[in-house]
Write a structure and sequence with these properties.
This protein is α/β, with parallel strands linked by helices. Helices cover about 35% and strands about 35% of the residues. The protein has one domain: 3-Layer(aba) Sandwich (Rossmann fold), CATH 3.40.50. The radius of gyration is 15 Å and the shape is globular. Bound molecules: adenosine monophosphate. The site of adenosine monophosphate has 17 residues, from β2, β7 and α5.
Length: about 180
């Protein structure tokens, strides 16, 4: 991706201090989403980073991962699969609990979302501690999906989340802090 476009995207991400909790610097991506040009370039960049041209399913994580995941799936001619917070999916699910910095969380995926042997790309808005992405990757592997890699719009590199997800496949991010 051209450095000036990457710069524009970086400058458009809004830092919101102390949201949703004191001490968190929240990366607000809505100004990027609001620009057709920047959103389109971001999706292209997130795909280009992976080198993937063909994949069966793109998995997006609740909730901002749905935006990136679905657009990437559409561009790659792949199906889209949501990994959702516990209790949101209507049919039979497999789920996993995982630790957050404080407390815990659970995510679920429909049992028939991925057929054994299907190739999968994971997409999310942001890689922080990596707990959420690692949980989603676990569900994909349990379903028999073949992980080709993970692609994130933003990576908070100082939190070291990459180490939790890299065993499942190559990890790519468009903007790193
Ligand atoms: P983690 O499991 O720690 O990697 O957290 C990942 C999820 O939390 C991502 O899907 C983000 O949506 C959200 N998240 C964590 N930290 C931030 C942050 N500083 N700004 C925006 N979103 C965040």
């Amino acid at each position: 991706m051209a450095p000036d476009i990457l710069d524009s995207i970086r400058r458009t991400i809004r830092d919101v201090p102390d949201f949703p909790n004191p001490g968190i610097l929240f990366k607000d991506i809505t100004p990027v989403l609001a620009s057709h040009e920047l959103l389109s370039q971001a999706i292209d960049g997130m795909i280009e980073n992976t080198g993937i041209t063909e994949v069966d399913k793109v998995i997006g994580i609740d909730a901002r991962g749905f935006i990136f995941g679905a657009l990437i799936a559409e561009r790659l001619g792949a199906g889209f699969v949501p990994v959702r917070k516990k209790g949101k999916l209507p049919w039979k699910t497999r789920g996993i609990d995982y630790a957050l910095e404080y407390g815990k969380n659970s995510v679920e995926m429909h049992l028939d979302a991925i057929a054994p042997g299907e190739t999968v790309l994971l997409a999310d808005d942001l890689l922080a501690t990596g707990g959420t992405a690692a949980a989603a990757l676990h569900l994909i592997e349990e379903a028999g999906g073949k992980v080709l890699g993970s692609t994130f719009f933003i990576e908070l590199g100082f939190l070291g989340g990459r180490e939790k997800v890299s065993s499942a496949g190559p990890v790519h991010s468009l903007i790193t802090y």
